[in-house]
Design a protein that fits this description.
single chain, alpha/beta, 2 domains, 6-stranded mixed β-sheet, 4-stranded antiparallel β-sheet, 12 helices, binds adenosine-5'-triphosphate, binds magnesium ion
Length: 261
């Protein structure tokens, strides 16, 4: 693991008009790590990711592999290896799964890198369901399949930092697990991930390090396993699992509320 983090954010602020949504947020994503940002609705999680991607003007310092990127365009950031799968999972509905994936490889093509076919095989290996549906129009996929395609398309560009905005939103627990397991496998391939989630339970189970964003500020941070046993986090974000969720969930170590296996 290299000592320079893949992403270093220092005192990042952003807002909409006069309204500030992020207040001097600082965070670090080490190489090959999964870092999660959890927090309630409206905390500024999407604003943070959009700011990192360059979709929103920010102030503060933003370094990717030690180089400042705050003044860089979105396109530049993509070329450097950042990739964002937004909450909206934008896909080309009238195009096939295969063609959506091909378009995801465009930035690599621009960099003069080949290997799109190999990368597609890699994506199909991670999400066999996409392979079965390669010819299907993206607009006709189920919610879970759309999310897999959105992540798969991002992976086609071989990002070095994958940023996921609430990948579990609206998905059944089993599909959530499937998508998050892919993130864990990507870590084994050296891909770093910044995961924004409202599903704190799943996020803390997967991540190495976690930040809690509340009202646009980092309220708490620490190793994910530590936060998972922090009483304030248990009370505000983990609560007592509903019976159905508990049955479906992978057990959370030590800190699991009573009722979990
Ligand atoms: N385009 C916008 N114009 C004005 N205000 C916005 C805009 N987008 C977000 N905001 C405001 O910024 C704050 C942070 O929003 P953001 O979408 O980043 O929250 P979030 O943590 O992603 O919430 P959620 O979990 O609901 O997705 C909110 O108060 C929101 O109303
Ligand atoms: Mg959001």
């Amino acid at each position: 693991m290299s000592a320079t983090p893949i992403l270093e954010v220092v005192g990042l602020s952003a807002g909409y008009g006069k309204v500030r949504a992020l207040h001097e947020v600082s965070l670090v994503v080490p190489h090959g790590a999964i870092v999660t940002v959890i927090g309630p609705n409206g905390a500024g999680k999407s604003t943070l990711l959009n700011g990192l991607m360059g979709l929103l003007r920010t102030s503060g310092e933003l370094r990717f592999e030690g180089r400042s990127i705050r003044q860089r365009t979105v396109e530049d950031r993509v070329m450097q290896g950042l990739s964002l799968v937004s909450e909206r999972r934008e896909l080309f509905a009238d195009m096939s799964v295969h063609d959506n994936l091909l378009l995801g490889g465009f930035s690599r093509h621009r960099r003069g890198e080949g290997g799109a076919a190999e990368q597609m095989d890699h994506v199909f290996g991670l999400f066999p369901r996409l392979k079965e549906r390669a010819g299907q129009l993206a607009g006709t996929l189920s919610g879970g399949e759309r999310q897999m395609l959105a992540v798969g398309r991002a992976l086609m560009g071989r990002p070095r930092l994958l940023m996921l905005d609430e990948p579990s939103l609206g998905l059944a627990p089993r599909i959530v697990r499937e998508v998050l397991q892919v993130v864990a496998r990507l870590r084994d391939h050296g891909v770093s991930t910044l995961l924004v989630e409202q599903n704190a339970r799943a996020a803390l189970r997967l991540a190495d390090h976690a930040y809690v964003l509340e009202g646009g500020r980092i309220a708490l941070e620490g190793p994910a396993a530590e936060l998972a046993s922090n009483p304030r986090i248990v009370e505000s974000y983990l609560g007592i699992a509903a019976p159905r969720q508990a049955a479906d969930a992978v057990p959370l170590p030590a800190t699991a509320p009573q009722g979990s296996p």
